[in-house]
Design brief:
CATH architecture of the largest domain: 3-Layer(aba) Sandwich
Distance between the termini: 61 Å
Radius of gyration: 26 Å
Largest sheet: 5 strands, mixed, barrel
Number of domains: 3
Order of helices and strands: HHHEEHEEEEEEHEHHEHE
Number of helices: 8
CATH topology of the largest domain: Cobalt-precorrin-4 Transmethylase, domain 1
Number of strands: 11
Strand order of the largest sheet: 3-5-4-6-7
Helix content: 40-55%
Strand content: 15-25%
């Protein structure tokens, strides 16, 4: 098991870094990334070359060999299996999920969990099973432990509709047909800026969130909710940066008419 040996872990990290940036890789860059000295990296590289896991052409040109790739993949599979063991067999037994009871529940009752509109519910249907830690009436919160299974989320779509600043027309320069179209199928709607809020009100839509919209949309995505963000145009770049930092996909629509 790779985690039993600090040396094996370091070799794994070095090969991964070289594979990601080959062929031109500075030893100092590898050292800074994984937290060891350049001298230590140099010694490890010599060992990896002698083992046939790495090919070196000078001091900065390296390439992971076929044998090295296979070695990395084998260790990665070990880590993946261990991570699955931690998530499914360890964390699931010590963690307690909080859900809303769909019906009256007794302590120690086996239930199923499912996500609906971003909220977790406990009842008879769902992808994850568990045991209640207390009784609860319908609509009350209930703790569920000994979780087994994994909740799957539908694909999350985030649409960002830009509206112009007030000095460029604001809500008076918005294509409301397009705004209605994008607002129709989104369960979570956020407004960024007064111009955005007024635009939504003009189509009789009250946003779910006004303040802290950027973080709220990210949280909604992690709970499986697709979002519409109506934003004044000057706020869009920072919003996109936030979404990209979390690896969330999006589309941008200009509502100016």
């Amino acid at each position: 098991m790779i985690l039993r040996s600090k040396k094996e872990i370091t070799k794994f990290q070095i090969l991964v870094e070289i594979a990601a940036h080959q062929p031109d890789v500075m030893q100092k860059e590898i050292a800074d990334k994984i937290g060891i000295t350049p001298q230590a990296v140099s010694e490890y590289i010599k060992e990896l070359v002698s083992e046939g896991l790495l090919f070196a052409d000078g001091r900065v040109r390296y390439r992971v060999t076929k044998k090295g790739v296979e070695w990395v993949l084998e260790r990665a599979q070990e880590l993946k299996k261990y991570a699955r063991f931690v998530m499914e067999d360890v964390v699931s037994h010590i963690s307690v999920a909080t859900a809303i009871a769909r019906e009256g529940l007794d302590k120690g009752q086996k239930v199923s969990l499912m996500m609906e509109k971003g909220l977790l519910y406990a009842g008879r249907e769902g992808e994850v099973s568990g045991i209640t830690i207390s009784g609860a009436q319908e609509g009350e919160e209930v703790g569920v432990t000994d979780l087994k299974g994994m909740i799957t989320f539908p694909p999350v779509n985030i649409t960002i509709c830009k509206v112009p600043r007030v000095e460029r027309g604001g809500s008076r320069s918005v294509d409301y047909g397009m705004l209605k179209k994008h607002a129709a199928d989104k369960p979570y709607i956020a407004a960024l800026g007064v111009e955005a809020l007024v635009s939504l009100r003009k189509i009789n839509v009250q946003p779910n969130i006004l303040f802290g919209a950027k973080e709220s949309v990210v949280e909604a995505a992690f709970h499986g909710l697709s979002s519409l963000v109506v934003s004044v145009d000057e706020e869009v770049p920072s919003l996109l940066n936030r979404l990209e930092s979390e690896g969330l996909s999006y589309e941008v629509v200009d509502l100016s008419n």
